[in-house]
Amino acid sequence: MMNPNRDELLQLILDVSFRREKVTLTSGAVSDFYLDLRQTLMRPRGVALAGAMILDRLDRGASVHSVGGMAVGAVPLVTAVLAAAAARDPDTPLLGFFVRKEVKKHGLGRRIEGGFEKGQTVALVEDTVTTGGSTLDALDVVEAAGGQVARVLCIVDRGEGAADAFAARGIQLEALFDRSDLPV
């Protein structure tokens, strides 16, 4: 089944975010290709498509109170999802948050910022996942703060262990695209 928005987002990713070159990933692994989805998410059409497509996925599964992820990577995607939700329903109750890598040293000293409260059911989002390490860290922080992570969604799953890592935690990784969509 053809999906013009999916096709357009994939083409944009391939045009501006995909590079064939050897790089060392956050996980420490060396890869023959690099995905810099910030390049896609910092373009008006990219942010609109990604936000709408992740929101569509959220609408088709277990409902959540809030959507969030690890700073800095997830922040543009969280914002995109919230903008898409507001465009569909200006009174949407969906909130957003982000998890800091460490406790803030000033102000209220929070590690989770934004629309998160103890007891919430949340979805975590990420642009690209490899091993899932950053999002697993966010999951641990959210659970320690009294939240329940019901879903994990990403734009691209590189197919290098993240799905298994989340499955081991009882959560299915939901990806808009996976390795088979990439010219690797």
Concise account of the structure shown:
The protein has 184 residues and is α/β, with parallel strands linked by helices. It has six helices and eight strands, in the order αββααβαβββαβαβ.
Classification by helices and strands: alpha/beta
Task: Spell the H/E element sequence.
Answer: HEEHHEHEEEHEHE
Helical residue percent? 25-40%
Mean pLDDT score, rounded?
A: 95
Looking across the biggest beta sheet, what order are the strands in? 5-4-3-6-7-8
Give the CA-based shape. Answer: globular
Radius of gyration: 16 Å
How much β-strand is present in the residues? 25-35%
Distance between the termini: 23 Å
Q: Largest beta sheet, briefly? A: 6 strands, mixed
By DSSP, the count of extended strands is 8
Low-confidence stretches at least 5 residues in length (pLDDT < 50)?
Answer: none
General description of the model:
This protein is α/β, with parallel strands linked by helices. It contains six helices and eight strands, in the order H-E-E-H-H-E-H-E-E-E-H-E-H-E. The chain has helices at 4-16, 38-41, 44-59, 75-88, 133-144, 162-167; strands spanning 18-24, 30-35, 66-70, 95-99, 112-114, 121-129, 148-157, 173-178. The strands form two sheets. The chain has a six-stranded mixed beta sheet, with helices on both faces. Strands 1-2 form a two-stranded antiparallel ribbon. Helix 1 (4-16) crosses helix 3 (44-59) and helix 3 packs across helix 4 (75-88). The chain is globular. The two termini are 23 Å apart. 42% of the residues are buried. The mean pLDDT is 95.
